[in-house]
Amino acid sequence: MNIHPLFFGINSHKHLGEYTVLTSIWRKRRSVIITWLFSYVAILLLPIVMGIFVYRESSAALEEEIHRANDALLKQVREVIDNELESVLRLNTEVTWNTKLQELMFTNIRGQDSYQYSLYQIAMDFKMYKTFYPQITDFYVYYSPDDIGLMPGFVRSGKEVYEDVHNNPDFSYNDWQTMMTSSKKPSFVPLVYRGLNGSIHQSIAHISYLTSDLNTKPEGAVVILIDDSKLLSALQNVQLFSGGEVLVLNKENQILLSTLETNQHPVLTNRVLSDDSGFFNEKYKGQDSEFYYIASKKSDLKIVTIMPSAVVWQKAIYVRWFTYMSIVLSILGGSLLTFFFLRKNYNPIKQLIHSFAGESTVRLNEGNNEFQFIQHMISNTLNEKEEVNFRLKQQNYLLRSNFMTRLLKGRLDNQIPIEDALPAFEMHFDSDHFAVLLFYVEANDQFYSSINGNSENEKTKLLQFIIANVVEEIMNAKHIGYMTEIDDMLACIINFRDTGQASNLTELRQMASEAQQFLKNKFQIELTVSISNIHTSIVDLSIAYKESIDAMEYKLIMGRKEIISFHEIQNEAINEIPQGYYYPLQVEQQLINFLKIGEYDRAKETLDNIVDRNLKINQISLPLARCLMFDLVSTMVKAHHEIGDTQEESSGASLKEIEKLTACETMQDMHEQLTEMLKEVCSNNLAKRKSTLIQNRHQDLQTLIQNIVRFIQENYQDPDMNISMIGLRFDMKSTYLSKLFREQTGEGLLDYMNKVRIVKAKELIESQNITMNEISSLVGFSDVNALIRIFKKYEGVTPGKYKDSM
């Protein structure tokens, strides 16, 4: 496929301009231009998203500030209203608690000669109150039993009070009387007020009711009137937003005071919530408005302010439009810059594509962009080179490994001399002194767990690669070493440089130890190493290999993770003094008996003695060591059988433990496994014995507690019965006995004795008509005061009150 349609303004098509670019992008939708375009757009979107975020945060902060300002304004209005109504509440308190009015309400002076004079005195007191509270429009007290009204300086009938203060066609005398006696809770209500000149005024009335009995209807009411024009004039000093208005509602959401026409807003009484404060939005006078409300601190009133939304949110609207304009400008400017840099940055890519396209048969297609095409071309070249080198190394490594295996096992092809084969496999030797080291991997679980995502085969190859490289590097520091895999182990052929045989063996052991420690510390790979004797011919490598195999078998006795030298084993075999095999029948029976009784320490001591006597003192041979392993396995089988654990789950677990023993490769492993088994078996048997003892002790304690309870039930009448007496009765210390009783029952012994006596005392109180002195002696108290004190402690009342309640 020809790639030139991708490029901007090629040859005679330059006059097509932007149309050519858009057409190329669409036809090459996988082009790097699209990738760059998305990148530039992402960069462009970042400040836009940040701007939106900043706008949201600033809007939230501004909204919070606006609400805080409105709340402060509402609190200012509330302060004005509360200050104006504080005198009403204070006057109501003084009138209600007037001693003469209280005497009228709560004493029977009606019909007495002093009755009329008392009414006159109350009216005179009210006249004095009127002088002290000039801001109060008017007030009176209505007393319904005699249908009279007490006004400042006057005593009138109820009808006269109504006509002087409230006479109005919309509010009849019967309505007025019903209001004066129909409720008990004080409240603010809207009420019509008739002035001295006969003019009608709207006023706010505070009504509190008078009653001489909580269970009867009110006998009258205290009515205090304040003209709403006074409150409105006080509100003029509060600076509201432009067009802001105020409502004052009572607890029934009736409008008491308003700076607007209340009949325009019937919905207000439904929308103001029962909360102490809040706000909501609603249409008012054809425009959106904000309604804020708050409860009065000194009364049950609620103040509402109404403000146009356009005024409240003027700053927020400005911030919103400013953000919108900045986003639009960012998009326009970013788009122009994106188009400019796309054209500028694509020219070098275009020239590079032309260069590759002319040198290769591979062409840019719909599935690749320009960078992928260039990367593909470079990768193909590098991969071809790497593949050739890898194949050469792989073939050489496999051929050399096969050659070394045949060399160690003595199966070389006699047609090709060894000296001629070595250079072909990139091997060379400096001397005729050779030795073989075998490496057996004992623990690789930690190494495998540290590698994720590879198969077991790949992990094994990696492990062998690491061991081979570490060993070769250490050996090649002073000698020549080559590693190969052979029979689940790794073998290393060592060629010594001109040194003596004895020193070579010592140095070889040190180097093997160094490799072993490094692999353990660095990679958690643990090895057992065996070393052959030193031989003076390359042909004798097969003998050296067999010697290292024989030495490796001795890990059964010497244990894992050791360095075993065939030379040392050979010397020990020559100097070995035959010793007896130690595992008598009585020792075996002792070991079984210790297991049965759970004596772990003595069982372990016996096992350690058997192993030490055979491996360290007697130093038995390899065949006898195998016999000892089988004998110890047999002992564990006998022990499990004699313990008699017949449960299916336990039997299965025992069988698995025996299988672990038979799978041990060294005496050290078997010794460790046997020790763990001894510990588990002894722990289980010991736990069973302890469980039996605990059950027996618990049963004994239950029997003791039952006997104590029975003793108390039978001897509660004895005044000498106490904790010390009970302790002597059961031959135990009183403190210890009380502690046992609390632990078993959750209740103190003294509390239980007192409760038994109180229960018996209640039965006597309920069933017999006898004195408290007699009851106290019958239930075991030394005197009646003790009975009263303890009875009240547990029942909350004295015996006398309890008897009265019965």
UniProtKB/TrEMBL annotation:
<dbReference type="InterPro" id="IPR018060">
    <property type="entry name" value="HTH_AraC"/>
</dbReference>
<keyword id="KW-0812">Transmembrane</keyword>
<dbReference type="Pfam" id="PF12833">
    <property type="entry name" value="HTH_18"/>
</dbReference>
<keyword id="KW-0238">DNA-binding</keyword>
<keyword id="KW-0804">Transcription</keyword>
<feature type="transmembrane region" description="Helical">
    <location>
        <begin position="321"/>
        <end position="342"/>
    </location>
</feature>
<dbReference type="InterPro" id="IPR018062">
    <property type="entry name" value="HTH_AraC-typ_CS"/>
</dbReference>
<feature type="domain" description="HTH araC/xylS-type">
    <location>
        <begin position="706"/>
        <end position="805"/>
    </location>
</feature>
<feature type="transmembrane region" description="Helical">
    <location>
        <begin position="33"/>
        <end position="55"/>
    </location>
</feature>
<keyword id="KW-1133">Transmembrane helix</keyword>
<keyword id="KW-0472">Membrane</keyword>
<protein>
    <submittedName>
        <fullName>Helix-turn-helix domain-containing protein</fullName>
    </submittedName>
</protein>
<keyword id="KW-0805">Transcription regulation</keyword>
<dbReference type="InterPro" id="IPR009057">
    <property type="entry name" value="Homeodomain-like_sf"/>
</dbReference>
